[in-house]
Amino acid sequence: MVLRPKGTSHNKKTWTSPVNSRLMLQHGLNSCELFFVVFCLQAFSKIVQSKRVPGETPGWRCCDDDFTELRDIHRHIAQNHSDAVDSAARIILENGDTDAR
Q1: Which class for 90: exposed (0-12), middle (13-18), buried (19 or more C-beta within 10 A)?
Q2: Running DSSP on this structure, what letter comes out for residue 52?
Q3: Segment 6-37, tens digit of pLDDT
Q4: Distance from CA of residue 68 to its chain's centroid?
């Protein structure tokens, strides 16, 4: 689910999902930080999808390693490619480009 501002009032954004208020309170995030977290999750997902090996179910390849479990490729991306996730999230944020990888 993509979260988008409904409107602005005094530079405060109101979000379409009621879950967001709870997340903001639980993690101490302001609306801008939560918005960026959503973009990071989208970017992370796109990067994992880009590592998929066609024809292999399931199968991912990254850094000359093969992964058969989703949790393993997630762990690898999170531990080794955080800069790429951050860059892709910024591209999505700046350009609205959900195909950024």
Answers
A1: middle
A2: B
A3: 444 444 444 445 455 666 666 676 777 777 77
A4: 21
CA distances (Å), origin 61, targets 1, 3, 44, 84, 89: 26, 30, 15, 16, 21
Which residues, in sequence order, are CB contacts of 34 under 8 Å at separation 6+?
A: 3, 15, 20, 23, 24
Identify whether the C-beta of residue 67 lies closer than 8 Å to the C-beta of residue 76: yes
Helix axes 82-95, 31-50, angle to 10 degrees: 120
Mean pLDDT of 69-82: 93
State yes or no: pLDDT of 75 exceeds 90.
yes
Distance (Å, whole) CA 101 – CA 90: 11
